[in-house]
Amino acid sequence: MTRGPLPKHIATRSNDWFVLAVDLLALLGVPVLLVFVQVGAPGPFQSLVTYSSQEPTLHGLFGHWTVHYSGLHLLENLTGYGVVVVMGYILAWLLQERWWFRLSMFTILLVVPPLTMMVSLLCFGAIEPGLSYTSRGASAVIAALLGLLYGLSVGFVRELVDLRAAISIGGAMLILALTGLLSQIGSPSPVVFWGLLSAVAIILVLDSGVRLRHGSLSAVRWPAIGMIAVVGYGVTMAMFLVFGGLFPADPFAGDTITNVFSHAAGFALGAIITFWGHRYWTGDSWV
Questions:
Q1: Cα radius of gyration (the chain)
Q2: What's residue 142's pLDDT?
Q3: Per the count of CB atoms within 10 A, which of 66, 98, 191, 251 is most buried?
Q4: Cβ neighbours of residue 166 under 8 Å, at least 6 residues apart?
Q5: Separation between Cα atoms, residue 134 and residue 284, nearest integer Å
Q6: Using an 8 Å Cβ cutoff, are 260 and 246 in contact?
Q7: Which helix (H) or strand (E) holds 109?
Q8: CA-to-CA distance for 95 and 10, rounded, in angstroms?
Q9: Which positions ≥6 away from 88 have C-beta within 8 Å?
Q10: Mean pLDDT for the chain overall
C-alpha cells in the first residue's frame, strides 16, 4: 500500500542534522565577522567602511554595519542578534520553512544597511539640514531581523490556526510591544495607555467570539493554543527589549546620536522582506 507525503510539520530528512550544522555555522559567521572587524581589522579599513553623511561611499553604505564604535556597542548588538536569530531559527525549524528564513536573512543583510542609511539621510536632512554625522553598527540590521522574527511568529500562528488568527494575534503582539515602548520612552496619558491595551483585548475577544459563534474554536487544540501563547509572549518580550535599546528616551543624549530613523526603517524593511518573501520563497500561499 502506498503512502502519501508526510505533513510538513512532521516531515523528516536523513541529512537534517547536517543541514542544521551548516545553518548554525552560517549564523555564527555574522558575529564572528563583527568581532573580527572590531578587534582585528586595521584602523584604515574601519574608517573605509564607516558611513559618512558628508561623503557617502558604497563601502560605507554596505559595510557600516560591520564596524562599531566600542566593544560595548558591539556587545549590545551581538546580544540582540543572538536572541532574535535563535528564536527565529527555532520558529523556522518548527514551520519547516528554513529556506524562507535563510533567504530573508540574506536579503536583510544585503539591502537593509544601504536603504536605512538613505532613509536616515532624508530624515535628518528634513529636520536638521546640514547635519554632519558618521554611522557605525549593526543596530538597523538587528531591527530588521526583529521584523523577520515577527513575520515568522505570525506565520507560526497562521500555520497552527488560520490567517485570521495570525492577523489578530500578530496585531495584538505589535500593539503590546509598541505600548511598552511608548511607556518606556515617553509619558503616555492613561487614556492612550489603556486605550491601546483595550484595543488588544477587543481584537482577541472579537476573534474568539466569532469562532465560538461558528463552532470553530473547538477545532483548535489546547496544545496549539499553549504553543501560540508561549511564542506570542516570547516574541512580544523580544520586541519590547530590542526596541528598548534601539529607541532611547532621548536619542540625542551624550556625545552621540541614536539613529532612530534607521532603526525604524530597519524593522519595517525586515517585516516587508519577510512577508513579501513568503509569497515567492515558500510553497504555501497565505491568501
A1: 21
A2: 96
A3: 66
A4: 154, 155, 157, 158, 286
A5: 42
A6: yes
A7: helix 98-127
A8: 10
A9: 101, 145, 148, 149, 152
A10: 85
